[in-house]
Amino acid sequence: MSKWVYFFGNGKAEGNGTQKELLGGKGAGLAEMTNLGIPVPPGFTLTTEVCTYYYQNDQSYPKDLEKLVMEALSGVEGIMDRKFGDPGNPLLFSVRSGARASMPGMMDTVLNLGLNDETVQGLAALTNNPRFAWDSYRRFVAMYGDVVLDLKPEKKTDDDPFDVILDQVKGEAGARYDTDLKTEHLQKLVKLFKAEIKKRKGIDFPENPMDQLWGAIGAVFGSWMNDRAIAYRKLYDIPSDWGTAVNVQTMVFGNLGNTSGTGVGFTRDPALGENKMYGEFLMNAQGEDVVAGTRTPRPISELQHILPDAYGQLVDIRNKLESHYRDMQDFEFTIENGKLWMLQTRTGKRHPFAAARMAVDMEAEGLIDKKAAVLRPEADGIAAFLAPVFDGDAKRRAVEEGRIIAKGLPAGPGGATGRVVFTAQDADEWRNRGEKVLLVRKFTSPEDIRGMDAAQGILTAQGGMTSHAALVARQMGKVCIVGCGDLNIDYAKGVMEVGGKVIKEGDWLSIDGFSAEVIMGKLETRPSEVLQVLSGELPPEKSKNYQQFVKLMAWADEFKKMQVWANADTPKQAALAVKLGAQGIGLCRTEHMFFEGDRIQYVRRMILSESEEQRRDALMKLAPMQKEDFAGIFKAMEGRPVTVRLLDPPLHEFLPSREALKPDIFNRKVKEVADALSVSPEEVEERIEALHENNPMLGHRGCRLGISYPEIYEMQIRAIIEAACDVAKQGLPVKPEIMIPIVATEGEMRIIGEQARKLADEIIAAVGVDLKYMIGTMIELPRACMVADQIAGIAEFFSFGTNDLTQTTCGISRDDVKGFMGTYVAKEIYPVDPFQRLDRSGVGALMKIAVEKGRRARPSMQIGICGEHGGEPNSVEFCHQIGLDYVSCSPFRVPVARLASAQSSLR
Ligand code: PEP
Ligand code: MG
């Protein structure tokens, strides 16, 4: 017989905190707290294995489950000295979901379960509070109707049937708030709610508590497969076969009067990472009132003035939890008639920025060691240290001009500016049109996540630091302000009014996630503190952010095995990359240099040349400029390897394009080119026609150009080697690597490799310096992977160009993927866009073959990656696993890759 049910209560639990996979996060936390002697209302957990069984067996339960539930239930009855369904002394339960990973608000919950027409009387007598008993009952019937009987409105614009009735009864009673309703009104509500259920569903509301319990359990398991939960899992890569657990737990009430209350908190500040308890509470309220974000709660420190004893207990528990878990916890508590109960603890979600700061602080406090500190923050999150902040002058001007229109609570740091939209759907659509948007809402709910993801920042009128908006923004690393009570939002009109000012949909608005200020108009942003220190604008001792950032990065470098290089095309980019920790340049795209200044003229002259001689002439003009570029990059890199890629794009990319331009503009551009080169427009057009390709990505590009026009590569090789010789002659270290693109065959590699080596050796000998260089290739085509051993006979290094390798392996044009990849991902054909995250089983498998074959032919082979995947943590991990020497990514991603590389070594 499997153990499907785990009991907890009275200081002893059958499970413990390590069993998250089985008990879910909530269940494991309840068990662990119980074992730690923390007051937890007793209950039991149905394991995630029950969920898996349920979905594998036609939505049915294991045979022995009922018996196990009955046993656990009577255990709870024993501890509480009450009975489930006993009219004289009723025990009530909450039934909640609890998956392995937290999925805030995605699945269903039922509270006050066990109430019926008889037990409600018992509850009234027990609490000496009939109003409370009937209020709990009407809430339960509505919640049960919504969650278990499926009466929840499907669309946001539809009304909840129970809310409609509630408003009616309130109107009839002349009640403004729910709290104005008297017992008889609540009794009437219960009747009307039940009648509504009968009308809509044709069934009676179940009076039998056991029926209620099984209905709720089924609904929670069912909610694992609701649309919201599925969308959330997709966004956060949570496998659907994990399943959820169900926690059945004794109800305690925070709404019994003035010595009762409920709240949520974090053991540290989850937005900024400061080491102080953070949280909020509402007196005389139920838990959902706090998290729903519909009432703005009070800061937790105020609890010490209202209920000092309970506050003192909470502080003790906070300390116990932190030293036990050695990580920030988020917790929920309820105070029932002055007694504190803990309802949940789990590792808290935090803003990526806070995650890194906390990790560094906790190491200093001795809670964790360096390794744990490096493993803690999500690698992607470190990018938050580089996120823009508002320009100080622009902000000051905004203050002077009276453009600060409101202030809320800072839930996600950074500066964000965008055009206002009021629905998540608009945010998504506007973003897809290329707009920058700020999502402004009264409060957000789980349906809004896609739109939140699309927005630059999120601003809400209601809710506190633990409201849904704050929680999700923190996790996404979004700039966010919540609880901005001065906003009067009118969704229907698409406007909001703030202190007499009206802001319409589409207006520019800015939010400062550090100070929680809302600013009218577009506000200039400026580099983050870290970038300001790196550029010398800010002294390092003035920036705690910077100090924490460098500490964490230094630890990462201690543990990482793979190096991190950068893709950079200019000395300035190269210098920034070094400051951000790059150990080399993995890709310098020389074609980017062709667009600087008036160089394009010479490039075009070269393209229009009719003979090799004319071509050489034009190339000679380009040579000194290229040489200067390379020398600048070599110097900026101070002896670190610099990989320069020879010309890659097809030549027509340097001429006006008939397809991409309107006819009149095309004609004008052709004339401009013709005039500049003193040829006729017809000649230019002829050349454009001749160079036209149906599929340029698979056309006359890369090394194919080098084979057809050796003089182009000759000029580039000469510029690279001469620049390196110049730098070497100045006594500076330099390490050039010449990289040939789009190689598919040994022949290509041999012809160009030999040409390059001969030329380079001649130049070096003539200059008479000691210069080491390497000649290698990009691996961007499946064929190159399969014959990597042959290519490795000549190439001294490989660098995976996974942009092209993904394109050619999957047969998907990297420029046309947008049209269908969304659907593909939604249908789980690809788990994520393979151009964003390396497709391990396809592209990755080819890479593995290439590494193996390459190293077999040349054991010392240096192998790296320079496609966009080089800065994406999951892909970085794969590169580590297959033994690459380095990953190369854009300068701003270098810290992410450093951390990801270290985490891969430590995992
Ligand atoms: C690649 O193909 O991965 C690559 C780095 O080259 P490019 O993006 O310039 O084609
Ligand atoms: Mg490429």
Description:
With 907 residues, this protein is α/β, with parallel strands linked by helices. It is elongated, with a radius of gyration of 32 Å. The mean pLDDT is 92. Magnesium ion (MG) binds next to helix 32. Magnesium ion (MG) is lined by residues 741, 780, 801, 803-804.
Explain the layout of strands and helices.
Elements: E1 5-9, E2 12-13, H1 20-35, E3 43-46, H2 48-56, H3 65-80, E4 83-84, E5 90-91, E6 93-99, E7 109-113, H4 119-127, H5 130-147, H6 161-173, H7 183-201, H8 209-223, H9 227-235, E8 244-250, E9 261-266, E10 278-283, H10 287-291, E11 298-299, H11 303-306, H12 308-325, E12 329-336, E13 339-347, H13 352-364, H14 370-375, E14 389-390, H15 392-400, E15 404-407, E16 409-412, E17 415-421, H16 424-432, E18 437-441, H17 449-454, E19 457-460, H18 468-476, E20 479-482, E21 488-490, E22 495-498, E23 501-504, E24 508-512, E25 517-520, E26 525-526, H19 529-534, H20 544-559, E27 563-567, H21 571-579, E28 585-589, H22 590-593, H23 599-608, H24 612-637, E29 641-645, H25 663-677, H26 681-691, H27 703-708, H28 710-729, E30 735-740, H29 746-767, E31 774-779, H30 782-786, H31 788-792, E32 797-800, H32 802-810, H33 818-826, H34 840-857, E33 862-865, H35 873-881, E34 886-889, H36 894-906
Parallel strand pairs: 4-5, 17-18, 18-19, 19-20, 27-28, 27-34, 28-29, 29-30, 30-31, 31-32, 32-33, 33-34
Antiparallel strand pairs: 1-2, 1-3, 3-8, 6-7, 6-8, 9-10, 9-12, 10-11, 12-13, 14-26, 15-25, 16-20, 17-24, 21-22, 22-23, 24-25
Helix pairs in contact: 4-5, 5-7, 6-7, 13-20, 20-36, 21-24, 23-24, 24-28, 25-26, 28-29, 35-36
Bound molecules: phosphoenolpyruvate and magnesium ion (MG).
Phosphoenolpyruvate binds at residues 587, 589, 648, 780, 801-804, 866-867.
